């Protein structure tokens, strides 16, 4: 496959951006998905001035990495969440990203109930217009209480109806939040997938256990057969979220990223 393979800097939650970039580059990856998730993984922020942006770009250059996407999860069901996300779109452009990632509700748990879908559709249309102005594609993550599967998210994306919106398909989230197997769900929604979070999963559906790629229970051979068969050409971003206890050390994270890279050689 000729897809771009990246690593989400959320994999390095609790560590610095420089530590994340160093580990991602040392593992062999050439692309990174930067995180600007409020109150969680804030490796970059929309408040950054020009000097701070230059420092980020300098670090990317040092490690020979390209920022392909910005993860800026924001609650689009709230006015302040929409305002913050629009600021993140501008940040994505300043960083040279081609994609921006969010779900519809809270970044974590996302148990919000969407009672009026037309309201979120209207909000997304406004956001997509901003994305179009900045030549950035919005990708909505399979996540949370309302759009946990590719099928459900695909239905929403179709209603927004723009070339600047698509699904960010998270292979682990569809199990954890949606209780479906990604091998089947992905096939039903692949036409609207423009970005992927490649996340492994082990244990019960609601068990937070996301190990290195290839060390869990997801059938990635089948996943990549679907991607190849459907000629998927979008980026694939590795995200490792470990267990609630966390990875414990930077060395452990680096090894998980390196192990993931080694496993993915079967598919790159």
**Proportion of residues in β-strands:** 5-15%
- State the helical fraction: 25-40%
Major sheet strand order: 1-2-3-4-5-6-7-8
Global Rg: 17 Å
Overall mean pLDDT stands at 95
Largest sheet: 8 strands, parallel, barrel
Structural class: alpha/beta
Count all strands and give the number: 8
Low-confidence stretches: none
Total helical segments: 9
Order of helices and strands: EHEHEHEHEHEHHEHEH
What features would you highlight for this structure?
9 helices; 39% helix; 268 residues; globular; eight-stranded parallel barrel; alpha/beta
Describe the protein's architecture and organization.
- There is one protein chain.
- This protein is 39% helix and 15% strand.
- The chain has 268 residues and is of the alpha/beta class.
- Helix 4 (117-133) links the parallel strand 4 and strand 5 (137-141).
- The mean pLDDT is 95.
- The N and C termini lie close together (5 Å).
- The protein has nine helices and eight strands.
- An eight-stranded parallel barrel has the order 1-2-3-4-5-6-7-8, surrounded by four helices.
């Amino acid at each position: 496959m000729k897809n771009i393979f990246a690593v989400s800097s959320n994999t390095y939650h609790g560590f610095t951006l420089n530590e994340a970039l160093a580990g991602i580059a040392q593992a062999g990856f050439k692309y990174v998905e930067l995180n600007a998730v409020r109150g969680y993984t804030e490796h970059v922020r929309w408040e950054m001035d020009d000097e701070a942006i230059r420092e980020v770009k300098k670090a990317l250059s040092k490690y020979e990495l390209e920022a392909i996407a910005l993860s800026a999860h924001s609650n689009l069901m709230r006015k302040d969440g929409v305002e913050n996300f629009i600021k993140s779109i501008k940040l994505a452009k300043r960083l040279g990203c081609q994609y921006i990632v969010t779900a519809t509700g809270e970044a974590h748990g996302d148990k919000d109930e969407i009672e009026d879908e037309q309201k979120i559709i209207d909000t997304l249309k406004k956001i997509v217009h901003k994305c179009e102005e900045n030549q950035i594609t919005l990708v909505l993550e399979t996540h949370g209480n309302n759009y946990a599967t590719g099928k459900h998210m695909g239905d929403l994306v179709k209603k927004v109806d723009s070339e600047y919106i698509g699904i960010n398909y998270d292979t682990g989230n569809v199990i954890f939040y949606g209780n479906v197997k990604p091998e089947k769900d992905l096939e039903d929604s692949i036409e609207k997938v423009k970005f992927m979070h490649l996340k492994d999963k082990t244990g019960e559906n609601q068990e937070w256990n996301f190990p290195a790629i290839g060390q869990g229970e997801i059938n990635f051979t089948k996943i990549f057969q679907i991607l190849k068969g459907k000629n998927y050409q979008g980026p694939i971003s590795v995200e490792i979220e470990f267990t609630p206890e966390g990875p414990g050390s930077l060395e452990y994270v680096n090894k998980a990223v390196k192990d993931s890279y080694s496993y993915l050689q079967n598919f790159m």
